[in-house]
């Protein structure tokens, strides 16, 4: 379990999404743990820009050779960008999960919602405890 990469600058949801702030915008993707559980990602269905989302809402779908899983919004906000590169290169989710972001949000209540998420240390512990 200690082999998983964890982005120290991100916050994490219990559903294995990460969120990292870049110039006041929340960048969202799935963790190394999530991509490993999914196995080989073959398709990514991205949301529309301009969509308002609530924390915990299914926003995107990632399909692998094993299953299709929803990507949930870890915080509420308005989608301001989507990573169209993933449509043509879904394998990036497996290869570089902390660069292969799914969407960017203009957050609504950033501080309160970020406080609900785990930091890297807490997420490492959570991932280790939830493994098999």
The fraction of residues assigned to DSSP E strands is 25-35%
User: What count of domains describes the coordinates?
Assistant: 1
Mean pLDDT: 94
Order of helices and strands: EEEHEEEEEHHEHH
Side-by-side strand order of the widest sheet: 1-2-3-9-8-5
Apparent shape: globular
CATH topology: OB fold (Dihydrolipoamide Acetyltransferase, E2P)
Low-confidence stretches: none
The total count of helices amounts to: 5
Please tally the β strands and state the result. 9
Main pleated-sheet profile: 6 strands, antiparallel
The CATH architecture can be named as: Beta Barrel
Radius of gyration: 14 Å
CATH secondary-structure class: Mainly Beta
SSE class: alpha+beta
| Fraction of residues in helix | 10-25%
Distance between the termini: 10 Å
């Amino acid at each position: 379990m200690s082999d998983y990469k964890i982005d120290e600058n991100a916050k994490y949801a219990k559903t294995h999404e990460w969120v990292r702030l870049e110039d006041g915008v929340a960048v969202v993707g799935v963790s190394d743990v999530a991509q490993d559980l999914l196995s080989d990602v073959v398709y990514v269905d991205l949301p529309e820009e301009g969509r308002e989302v609530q924390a915990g809402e299914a926003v995107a779908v990632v399909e692998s050779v094993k299953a299709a899983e929803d990507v949930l919004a870890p915080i509420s906000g308005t989608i301001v960008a989507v990573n169209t590169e993933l449509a043509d290169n879904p394998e990036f989710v497996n290869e570089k999960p902390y660069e292969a972001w799914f969407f960017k949000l203009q957050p609504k209540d950033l501080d309160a919602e970020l406080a609900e998420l785990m930091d890297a240390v807490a997420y490492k512990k959570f991932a280790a405890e939830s493994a098999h």
